[in-house]
Structure formats: structure tokens, C-alpha cells
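2024-03-11 09:14:02 INFO receiving multi-entity request
2024-03-11 09:14:02 INFO entity count = two
2024-03-11 09:14:03 INFO echoing inputs for audit
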Amino acid sequence: MRLGNLPNALVLPVLTVAFIGVSFLSMSCGQVDIPTENILATFCRATGLPFLSEVPVTSVQEAVLLHIRLPRTLVGLMVGAGLGTSGVVMQGIFSNPLADPGVIGVSSGAAVGAVTAIAFGLSETSLLALPISALCGALATMTLTVFLAMRHGKIPMMTLLLAGVVVGMLLGAVTAGILTVLNEQLIHQYLFWTIGGLDYRRWDHVALGVGPILGGIAVMLLMARHLNILVLGDVEARAVGMPVARYRLGLLAVASLVTATGVCISGNIGFVGLVVPHMMRLIVGPDHRRLLPASLLAGGTFLVFCDAVGRVIAYPIEVRVGIMTAFIGTPYFLWLLRRSRNKMQ
Amino acid sequence: MERRTFDMSDEVLVVEGLSAGYHKNQNILTDVSFAVRQGEMVGLIGPNGAGKSTLLKTLRGLLEPLSGSVEIGGRETSKLSSREFARQVAYLQQNIEISFGYSAREIVMTGRYPHLHWWEKESDKDAQIADACMAYTGVDDLTERPVHMMSGGQRQRVLLAKVLAQQTPLLFLDEPATGLDIFYQEEIFRFCRELCDRGKTVLMVVHELSLASKFCSRLMLVGEGRIISDGPPSAVMTSENLSRCYGVPVRVVQNPTTGSLEVFTEPPPDNGRHALLLDTILGRGEA
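2024-03-11 09:21:47 INFO inference complete, emitting structure
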């Protein structure tokens, strides 16, 4: 009954190969062409392994790879994987396939944080000032939304969803308000941030994201079996003995933290968190023990692939990854959706 | 079938002074007390809105009791952990929607949840139990089918397999047979009867009065915020009890061929208004 021509056992290996393949693609293409062989040779040299020493690597290639392409690719893989898994978890927590990782106001909170950093000139002081300020905004918003929705120690999911929407609107207005008093250059800087991109990502960004994102992903993977229960809804989960409130709040916090970190180091990248889980659900089915790893791999692959394509498609102009995800993802998703509808009838 | 190896005198469920409802000071049920012994198959009957489902939810701990106590297996339920509770009682809710395309087997496997620690994964033994439950309820050929694509009868048998996979001494079933074909209805009752004969205890909300009287060992008639009548089906299912509780004239007749009880309502007296209304509905009134 399920979609996909691949047998289930093959999906994860195929995705893993794609994940690695796309990483190399992203590292090799761009303004400076670096063949795969040279990438491997540079890695060997950097880590002191005695292989491929005969391959000639120019110093430009080495510098571009180690200081530009590698951190950029790593940020893309991390953010994509994080958005993919936290999308799955959010849809599970809300028992709603339309939930987006930003649903409880994370993205709008991050936007307020970012615009504040830009308005006060903090973003000029250090490369990390903007992401950290955005992260603070996101976390504060998350907490606010949860507190607004909480009643007698319980959090009704519908209220939480609505609180998220309302807080998002309010913060949207705050952001717009601040923007109206900024000069053109600062507005441009903010606009650039909102579109979401992986350009100019440095090792600092990798360092900022690696802890929360990888840690969060690990926790979500460990909770896969519990998510299978949580998805069935409140009553069903309690009937089989799950302390629902505790699990739900914990997973919500982890998924939001991962999303917030992702948004902060690479700007707003929509689509991945909503659509990758959908695509993977159509291919591997709803069991989170397959769905989470599949979304992790597919999220990373998809984001880095979009970034690589964006770099070469309109050369020498770079199309930012936030734009590419929508352009590449939408047709594929529509095609999958139509196919699944045909199969169901 | 008669293989009773358990002691019918064991009280597995003791309810004392229980008041239930969704809001404080708005009791749906007030001061309800009863005890259920192992192996009993108890049918909760009564009109819509009488509080049958509320009672079942409160007994299962899904609703906080407004007052009173519930003891299961000799232990106060408010002191049980979520996991311990789910190993004592399996609960089948009414009108459950399974979204996201879970397959029958995945749903039945969720019944094993309370038997696993949070870090454990299902073992082969859990899989065997799930398979046995599905074979018992006759859905072993539907294991990979998504539950949302099943007929009502198939879905209900999958969900029954799920609550059985929980391997609990007590089963609470909220309208397990409502909306099913007559064959599936009887089948659900037959399964319960068989399970009770082997020592499980079943509490079920039922609307099918004839089936309830045929299969249940005990009926509780819920109405007027309390339990109006409690006892063997023949004692509870009287014209007098039902008429009072349902608020319309009800006749209970014993079928001479099958010996089972049949229930009829009598139409309310017509004062000619109906004929007029029908004219309007059918468009035959004067212009």
C-alpha cells in the first residue's frame, strides 16, 4: 500500500549514499572547481593520512575547500537534518501533518532577535552576534507561547497551536515596526537574513550549531518509538500508559531548540521542515524508527543539493538556498502527492 | 468453553462513592459504588448522555474523579503510575481516528507499550503476542494494511487485537460494536464472552440491548446521574426499568424461539400534528 518503488530496507542505504554524494557535489562545484580527487587529497593532507599525496592541489583550492566550502556544506547538512527531524517531531506532537517546525513562533521570534541585532549594530561587532541574538529571540518566544497556552499545568495542543499563531503575528508586527525606522542598508541586511542562505558560513557557525543540533537529533532519534504512540493522540497514548504531558513538552522543547538553532545560523529556510517529513512518510511509512533517520538524511541532502544548484544555476549570481528549496521542492512534492492520491483510490 | 481456573470471588474493581463529570460542581454521576469480580462481563447500558462513557473514562483515569475512589486489583488507581495502570486496564475508546497511515500491525504493537521500558524495543516475544492477538480476532491477513483504509468491522477487530496485546486483566471497551454489521457486532460480544470465561474481566458501554442481555453476565443501567439498576440481564432489562430510564414506553419481550430478550419502543401518541408536518415535508401542503 505504500509508495515508492524501493523496498524499505534499501531506502536508508540509498539516502545515505545520496547524503554523502551531495556533500561532495557541494564541495566541488562553484566559482573554483575542485574535483573529488582533490577534495579527498586535501582531507588526507589535513588529517595527516598518507594517501593521495601525488594529487596536485593548488593552495587556492585548499583554502576554498577548508575555509569556505567545507563549513558551508557542514552547516547545510546539519541544518537540513535538524529541520527534517524536528519537522517530523512537530507533526507527531500535534498529530497534525501540516505542523511546521516554526509552528510555536520560533521563526518569528528569531526574526525579532535578528532585526534587533541589526538595528543596534550588534551584527557588525561579530559574526556570531546576529545568530546568537536570533537564538535568544526564538527561545524567548517558545517559552512565551508555551506559558500562554498552559492552563492548570496542562497544555492543550489546539491552544498551543493558536497561541503560536497569535504570538507569531504580534512579533511579525514588532519586526515590521523596527524595520520601518531602519535605513536601507540595514533593511537589506535583514532581508538577506530572512531569505536564508548558506553563503559566508564559517567554522564559527558550525561550532555554534553542532551541539544543540546534533544533541537534539540524537534525543529525537532515541524517542522514535514513543513518538509512534504520541502521534495516535492524547487518549490513545494515555491508554497505553504514556505520561503524555512530560513526553510532549520534552520533545517540543528539543524540536524547537533544533529548529531555532537552524534558523539562527542559516536564516529562515522554510519548506524543508514541512515537506521533507511528508515526502519521507510517503516513501517509508509512518513508523518513526524509519521516518526519523530517513528525514534526517533527506533533509540534509535536500538542503545541500539546493544550495549547490543555487550556486551554479544562474552563475555568476548565487540564488540563495531559501529560494531554491521552494523552487525544487514544490514540483517534486506535488508530483508525490498526486501519485499517492492515485494509489489510494 | 467452561474452563474456570480462577476464583470468581476476587473483586478486581471496587468503586466507592465515585462522582464523575467534566467540571467541578457539574456532576454527571454522583456517589456511585459497586464492585466487579474477576470473569464478569459487565454491560453499561442507558440512554445517550447518561454518563456511561464518562464513568468508563473516570474508571480508567482519563478523567479526574470529582470525589470517591477507584481500586483496581486491590490498589487505589490514583497511586498507580501511568505504566502500571496500563498493565492493569486496556481501554478502547469510541470513534477513534487513526491518521498518518499506520498499518494494522503497527497499531496492535502499540499495545505492548506499557510492558517496555522507555529505552527498550519490542522483542520477538512482543511480536508473537501481537500476531496471536491479530490471528484471534481474525485480522492476521490485514497486517500491512493502513488502518484508515479499513472497513469499520475490520478496524474494530484490529483495535480489539490491540487492547488484547496489552495483556491486562481488565478490559474497558467504549461502544466496541456500535455502527458495525450485525455479524461483526455479535462477533465482538462473542470474543468478550470467551475472554471472560477464561478469566478476563470486561466492562463495556453498549447500545445493543438485545446483544447485551444475551452475552453479558451483568448489566448496569445508568441514568438520572447514578446506577438505577445493577444485576443479571433478566433483572435489569425489565419494561419498567427501561421505560423509566429512557423516558419513553419500552417493552421487553422474551423471544419464544431463541429465549433471548427483545426490546421495542412504542411510538408516542399521535395527535394529528404529524400528518400536517408530513404534508409540508413532502411538499403536498396547500400553496
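2024-03-11 09:21:48 INFO post-check: The domain at 8-344 of chain A is CATH 1.10.3470.10 (ABC transporter involved in vitamin B12 uptake, BtuC).
2024-03-11 09:21:48 INFO post-check: Chain A has a mean pLDDT of 87.
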